[in-house]
Each structure stands twice: as C-alpha cells, then as structure tokens.
Queue: 3 jobs
Job 1
Amino acid sequence: MSTDDKNRAVAAAILPLVGGAGNITSVAHCMTRLRLGLRDRSLVRDEALKALPAVMGVVEDDTYQIVLGPGTVARVTPEFEALVAEAHEEDQEEAGAPASSADDLAAQGAAIRAARKARNRTPFKLFLRRIANVFVPLIPALIGCGIIAGLNGLLINLGRLPSVTPALAAIASGFMALIAVFVGFNTAKEFGGTPILGGAVAAIIVFPGVAKVDAFGQTLSPGQGGVLGALGAAVLAVYVEKWCRRWVPEALDVLVTPTLTVLVSGLVTIFGLMFVAGEVSNAIGEFADWLLAHAGAGAGFVLGGLFLPLVMLGLHQALIPIHTTLIEQQGSTVLLPILAMAGAGQVGAAMAVYLKLPRNGSIRRTIRSALPAGFLGVGEPLIYGVSLPLGRPFVTACVGGAFGGGFIGLFSMLGAKVGSTAIGPSGWALFPLLDGDGGLGRTIAIYAGGLLTGYLAGFVATYFWGFGDRLLEEFDVDTEAAAETVVAAGGTGVGAPDAPAPASAPAKA
C-alpha cells in the first residue's frame, strides 16, 4: 500500500467513528493532533478510536483531538478533509431539488441550477472554484476597509476632522498592505497544504527587505507581483510540502519539511515569481485602462451583457483575482460597476414579467418577494425563480445588463472612470464603495444612471420581446383558481386544463 493510500485508509477509519461527515463542523491539526469540531459529542466512539493502530490517544478540549503523532497528522488531515467534503457533496446531490413550492418555476429553476452545477464540475471550472475559494473569505475585509477608505476620502475632501483622517487611512490601508499574506494563507489551505507556510512564503513579497535583493540585475520592489505572486508562491509551497511529506522520514518531518518548503518556495518566489507576477499584474491594469479609455462603451456593452451567462457557466470566478489585482494596484476595480449592470437588467426584466402576467399570482408573489434583494444586487432568486425557467426573459435581462454596462463604459471613454474599492456587493449596495476620477458626486450619478439604464432596457426588452404567444398562454393564468379546481377534482388535475404543467426545461416562446 502506498503512503497516500495508507493515510487515506487511516482517515477513512476515523471518519465513521466520530459520527460521520455530518457530525464534523471544523477540521484542523497541530503538530501531533487532528482537531475536530463536532456537532454531537455522543456520536463519537472513543474506545473504537483508541483501538485504531494509527491513533495514539484522544484528548477532549474545546475541540475533539485525536493524537496521530508528528508527520502522520499532517498527512492524514488533508485526506480526512477530502473525505468530509466528498460526503457533503454526495449528500447534496442525493437531496436533489428543494421542496416543491406553489410556483412551478421554482422547481424548474432548481432543476436548471442542479444541471448547471453538474456541468460545472469540469477540471477547469473546479480549478476556478478553488481560486475563488481563496479570495471569497477576503471579501468582508475588502468591504469594510473599502467603506472606511471612502469615508476617509470624503472627510479629506470636506476638510473635516483632520486629526482623525490619518487613523482612518491606517485602518483602511493596513489590510491591503498585507493582503498577499492572507492570499498565501488561504491558497495553501485550499490546495491542501499547511496554511501558515503558505502565508510565510507569501509574506516575502511584501517584506521591505526585498528591495535589497538583486534578482538578475533588477532590484525588486516590496509588493511586486501582488496577490498573483502570492497565489503562485503559495501553490508552489503546497507542492514542495507534499513532496517533502512523501519522501522525508516521519522522525525528521517536523524539522525538515517546513524548512525546505519555505526555503525552496521562497527562493523561487524572489528570483522568478515576483518578477513574472509583477509583469502580469501591470499588464492587467494597463489593459483595463486602455480598454475602457478606447473602447469603453463597446466593452461595457459586451461585459454587462455576458456576465449572467458567465455566472451560469461558473466562469465569473476567473474575474475575482483580476478584481483584487486592480484594487491592490489602483485602489479600485473598474470592472465591477460594469458587471453589476447585469443585475439591473435582471430587475428590469422581472418587473416586465410582473406586468405581462397579471393573472399569475404565484409568479407575481415570487417577484415581489425577490425584487428587494434584486435591487441590492442579489439576483439568484429572480434568475432561478423567474427569468431562467421562462427562457426568453433571461436573454432580455442580459440585454438590459448590456445597455447598463455600455452606459458606464461610455463615461469611462469620456474620462469619468467609475470603480469599486471592494468586490462582493452589487446593485444599490455598491454605492458606499464607489470611487472615480470625477469626484464622488459625479461617480454616484454615473453609476445611478447605469442602473436606471439597465432597469429600463431590461424592462423594455422583456415587455416587448420577452414573451411569445405560447409563453403567455401557458403562464398568464390564474394559478390559484387552477389549484382550487385541482383540489376539487381530487388532485388529479381533471377540470384544470389551463393549469401549467411542471416542465424540466425552460419554456420556449
């Protein structure tokens, strides 16, 4: 049995004895112990655990700790995490679509979402998802620091509280100054390495002392390569660490593995990755500026129109490192306000659907409940509950996003660039994070104009071209009356010829 198989066998033996994957809330390890957060302590079979040959003992503290020994625990923990993740995924797939609702579209949307999730499980899309998992945990800090930076800029422009603004600047900028370390930590954690080693290697990038290093005739700059360099450095550290775990004797693992991991990855980072990642980061910033300055309206139209399909395909996750790089370089990402217009088109399309189906109380209730979230940039209830199952309204929603994006891009061409100091929020929730070249007032006005354009274009396109005769005939019915008829007929559907039958695919107009 290979070393990997042996470690997986140990993990597989432990999992059922601690109550299975459903009983695990957290997984971590220290030098010698596998530390587990448990939902129900009574499900653990202590004596059976202690009887396992690989287990040296158990300790109960704030977490349930299984003593495996140095070296072994670092090898078994990733296998244990993988088994827990696989079990959770299987449970979700077996659960299937959510419970039925009064609206047939909800079932259709759930089926479409499940199918999309299955299609998205390609190696490339799974890789993008892992990259997204590195950056998504950083979003709360990006939002908080971004809002504080905006507040600080406002106070400086108004000449208010000069004694406070330096403190606000420090609070807003501290996280961004060390974001590479957090990216390295999360990357190592996501790719199956020791998180602190990933953070240690990524910290080299922001260490001021790299300015004294002469790398092939060029002096490095602290921060050169940014988050992309940190990402690459931490991934390299994970592979070096895994190689060491495989070949270094367990008795020497605790000393040799971290030393070699930091040394080898650090040298490659200093004498290669920082330069390459720096060039790529600069190219991203320069291309974004050039694109919006020379083809802003067209680029905005295309990006705003294609963002919803990109989300459906899972390809939008590739944009997260680009957003973060732009924020790190320029203080804001000019792409997010354009992409946010996709949500505006979705809201406009939903309002048109509401008016086009005056007799369908079920769909109208769904829209009324989902519109507030839609205005705040949370579009999934409208996408999966309304427009995507209907088919053509999803396309017209994309048209609304295209026109909104083109509006924002047009002003970028005219020298009024609109950016966001953080990623995550959209719709109205993006207002506190806006940043631009022409002052806060003009920036807010341009973004608001883009939203209104997206709402209007999505509404008009959906109202006039989003429904064919067949779609109206199928869905513009009194669903409540139809349901009462079904009940009166004994639930067989007899006497309810106008009631729409559930479908497994989007309706065709």
Job 2
Amino acid sequence: MRTVIAVIAAGFMIATPVLADTSVPASKSEMVLSFAPVVKTTAPAVVNVYASSKVVADDDQGVMADPFFRRFFGDDGSFGRPRERVQNSLGSGVIVDASGLIVTNNHVVQGGTDIRVVLADKREFEAKLLLTDERTDLAVLKINVPDEKLPALKLGDSDALEVGDLVLAIGNPFGVGQTVTSGIVSALARTQVGITDYQFFIQTDAAINPGNSGGALVNMAGQLIGINTAIFSKTGGSIGIGFAIPANMVRTVVQSAENGTAVKRPWLGVELQDVTQDIADSVGLARPEGTLIVSLHPDSPLAKAGLKRGDVVLALEGKPIENSRELGYRAATSAIGSKVIVEYQRGGKSIETSAIMMAAPETVPRDVTLFAGKSPFTGAVLANLSPAVADELDLPAESTGVGIMAIKDGPAQRFFRKGDVVLEVNGTKITDVKTLGEVLDQTDGLWQIAINRGGRVLKLAVGG
C-alpha cells in the first residue's frame, strides 16, 4: 500500500502544471477552490489594536503582608506601597469607514489611556476613542490618515445568515500577526453565552483565539457580518466554538459614533419569561415559542400598543421570537421612533398590532452622586431610579428607589455590586439619593442595610 501511494504521489508531482486562476470566482461552485479572492478584499481592512493602561499594583501581598516581616525590613512606607505599572492588551479591529472609523471590542480598549492601531501594511497610528458601549462589548475608534481613503468593510445583513454558510474569521491571534481561518455558521441566536446584556450571538467553528477579539467575521461576499468576541474553551485555545456580535447590532453602535451621541436604544418596559412546554400548553401554543409578558410599565410602548400581562410575543417585524433575549435584541436593533409590527397571542388567538419604539423615559432626576465620608457606601456611585436608569442597570422597568451605578473604590467594594438597589438603612426607607445621604449623616458607627440584588433581599449589619 505504501508503494502504491508513493507512485500516485509521484505521478501527481510530474503532471502538467495548471496555472491558477486568480480572478474573482463567478459562482459558488468556483468559490470552493480558494478563499483567496475574498481574503484579498477584506484582510486589508482588519487591524491590530494595542491598548495600554496604568494599574495600581499593591506590593502588600504575600510575605510583606505579615507584620513580622514588615518590622524586620522596616515599616517606613517603602514596602507595601502601591506602585503603578503599565498593563497592555492586544486585540483586533475592523475599519468600517474609509475615513478611519474602526470597530473593536470594548474589553480590548477598556481603561486604555494609550490606544494604537497597526494597519495591515504595518503603519501605526494613535487612535481616538469615540464611543464605548459596555452593554454590547463594542467600541469605536478613529484614526487620522490625511489625504487617504483606507480599505473598509461594508456591514452586511446578519439576519440573512443561515446555519451552514461559509465564513472567514480575520484577526491577530496570540499576537502572531494577521491570520485568516475558515469555517461555517454553526448556530444563530445564541442567547445563553453570558458575555453582554444583548445576547444574540453568531456561533462559528472558524478558529477564534485570544487576540482575535474585535476582528472580522466575513461572508463570501466580503461583507462584515460579525465582530469576533469570545470563545468557549477550557484550555484558552480554539475548540471550534466561537461567538461573534451580529453586524446589525454593530451598525447601531457605529451610527451613534458617527452622530457623536451616546448609544440610545428602544425600551420595551416589560418583564419577560421564556415559554416552557407547560406554559405553551396553558396558553394554547403548539410548541414552546415566543416570550411571555409577566408585567408592563405603564409607559411601555407595548402597553400603549394594547399588549397586556399574559400575552405571548411571537414575532417582531415578521421575525420569529424564540425567547426573551431575542426580543430584546430585535428591539435594540430597531430605530427609536420607528413603527414596528408586533405579533402576539392572547386567548389562543394570534393578533398583530403596531408599536412605536421609544427611549426609556427619565421620570425623575438622576442626581448621580459619588459617596464619600465614613460609611459602607464610600466609593459607590448612586442614582435615583427611573425607567432609563433601571434599563441601564438591567433592572425591572418598574424599579424605584436608589441604584448603584458603579463602585470606584473604598469600603463599598466589600459590600455592594453594580445594580444593587438600596431599600433601607437603619429602619428608614430609601426613596432617593438625598434621603440616603441624610440617613448616613445621622449615623455613626453602625449601619443596618437592606438591598435588593437580582431579585433577592439581602440584609447587612456593618460596624464602624
């Protein structure tokens, strides 16, 4: 058998050579010969992104945390003093406009004070951060290249993708340099990934590795149909399960950056529940589909369109809805002020109506406050809850009171998380930021605190 293989191989090697056709394939059948034509038109628009940030490294760790060794070496502040060090991150990005507009992942540039972009031709430019959107894990950069139009990728329609479509992933894995991998769309509408607030990912088996974050997922027409964002892996390397943010979501973030505004998305103002088989049987559905409305805010556009608690939303703009995450994504990629067709079921009947997409309203002033002084809240940023603030914190639309927007430093890091809602302090119901401040000013040394975290009420007793 080895001899036969060798003869066949030798015969192949001496066969008359056939010149490769480097023209763009004219049909799908010709495309299987090589991805080179697609790569040539798309790879120049994929860049490397380097972000540097200063972080504080606390030397008061390990041996030097022991008071004995601190006395031995001298406790004069020279040991255990926090030091600044530079932390670098590496990722990829995609030029989406010839003027130098670049999309990447937020986690690639988050906290970066010095962001640089290296083009495919190895030229390097300082980048300006135009917009970050933590909820989608996207960021938009801008580089200035005078008197030159840069190669850019056109955003495709990610809703047109089908499982089995061929795709290419382009990026800079492990910092080895620009790399292209091929695969297919393995699945669509992945909603249980746990990466961003708007979970609706394209899954692909095209190899995606560390450093590919922010890179391009392109179709065979050379269009950008996703931004590579994450992988499922137990080793840190690709095992064929990668996830990309759909281009239709990317488009909304890019448009906001071009307009010079923060990202504002339509608000539904509803609490939803996925439909199980039991729910499907109870409402007369043939199978589990859609999402059940558990509650509606009075100002919800769905409430204004006539939907009620107990209705099951089946489709938005003709696109089937399988779960609550999918409805959130479909709404988020609609334009504020646009009229959308909502299909829902009530009492065993399918009904269609139209709803006007709107931004979440600011029903009360935010009064955003960074708390200082001596209390468990020191270092926390709090704000009065309105539908807009609740939406930003991914809280139920009808949430009221005071929510924690961020935690900077200080004691608050030990007790609270972003998204916690402060209910009560020392027996006083907390209705707004002002009330919380007044209660803390009157307290010295002992705090009895009740908060709502993810629907659970937690009680803390903190001594001064």
Job 3
Amino acid sequence: MRSLTYPQHLARQAVLLLTVSYLTGCASPANVTSTTRCAQVSYPVYDPAEPVNRGVFAFNRAVDDYALAPVARGYRYMPEFFQQGVHNFASNFSEPKVFINDLLQGNPRRSINTLGRFAVNSTVGIVGLIDVSDPLGIPRHTADFGQTFGVWGIGNGPIVELPLLGTGNSRDAAGKALNFLVAPLGDSDTVQTLGTISLVGGTVDTRASLLPLTDSLQKLPDYYSALRNVVAEHRAAFVLEGKQGATSPQADNCAQGAGDDF
C-alpha cells in the first residue's frame, strides 16, 4: 500500500480532527461546574463577534445533535469495563502532551508525575487500558497549550466559535491549533493508528460524560451564552490550577462524576 506523503497525512488528520473533535470546545465544560464550585476565579467574557459566533454555534449544535450526542448516548449503554478501558486508554495516550505542557509551565513536580503515570500505565497497565497509577498514589492532572499560554500571562482575547471545534477564547483557539501540530510520540503508522483510536474513543467517551451537563444547559433560555460562560469560567479556573501547579488538581477532587478533560 502506497505511503501517504506528509501533506496528505496532515490533510487526513485535519479532516479526522474536524470530524470528531467538536466536543473539545463546544461540549467540553463538564468539569467546569465542579471546578468553579471549588475555586473563585475571574472570567471576563469579551464577545465582539457574537452574531457571527452564534451562526457558527448553530452549525456546531446541529452536528452535535444529529451525530456526536446520539453516538455518545448509545455508548453509555456499553459495559462499564469497556467504557473504563476506552477512558483509560485515551487519557494515557494524551499524557505526553500533558508532560510537554508541564515542562513549558516550569513545573518539574507535575512533569515527573505525568511521566511516571505514562510509564506505569503504558507497561503494567497494558498500553493504558488499565489505570495502575491511581492506586499507586500517582493522580492524574491535565494540561494543554491554552493553559500554558495563560500561565505565561497571555490574556484571554475575544471569544471565538470555531466550526466543529466549539467555543473558547482566542488564546485557547491558538492552543488547539498548536496541540494539533505537536506529535511527541512521532509519526509512525502504529502511532497514527493508536492516535486515531484515542481521538475517536476519547471524544465519544468524554461527550458521554458531558451529557448531563449539556442536557441541563440546553433547557436554559440561551444555550449559547450559558455554554460560552461556563467554558470561560472553567478555563479561568484551569489556568489558575496550572499556576498553582498542584498534582491533585482541584477540578478532579471536586468533580463527583464530571468529565475529566477540556
């Protein structure tokens, strides 16, 4: 079978990312509520392009309503052990990028924590299908480039509603783009396959965990502004968490069943 050229590979990955990662921005504030109940943060919302953003949001919501959310609802009927395995695998596959951001944030303790989790779960935990680290007292935290930019002192910027990638501020939108370009595990066929499994499985798993929150937000008079504000509040708390550098993040301690990743 003929190998893809690098530009072709990037194009294929871009299509896949846009197809299945709508949840990353639009539906991902699951631990927003849990986070902000535990920390008081300032989250200014600047939305000068709101009419345009609302138009993009309508498209994003249609994609979610007719594609992603129904799949996530069906996924919730899968056996618990299967869902847990998908969650563990996707979480573990994301650890190298968490490690990079821990280093960029100048936090050696968090980076060692992440590296230890990845090493143990990838070996003893069978490529991450089993979370061995939590019972060993190595808790998981998350980090991304948007958080890193915030830790460096870069401001939020205006709200941007991206097609299929959802709502967020411009700082986090730049972080999403950088996250797509960084490949810490290389670009082999095996890594590409595992990455595809992680992206698809993790997206569905996280969307399923967010259904209670998004179902409740959709009952409010203005779903767009409710979701936008919840995302903004979560991201403010997430940046504060990065600045504090805790290895047991407040969001996880307070979650009580909310989703893990943003």
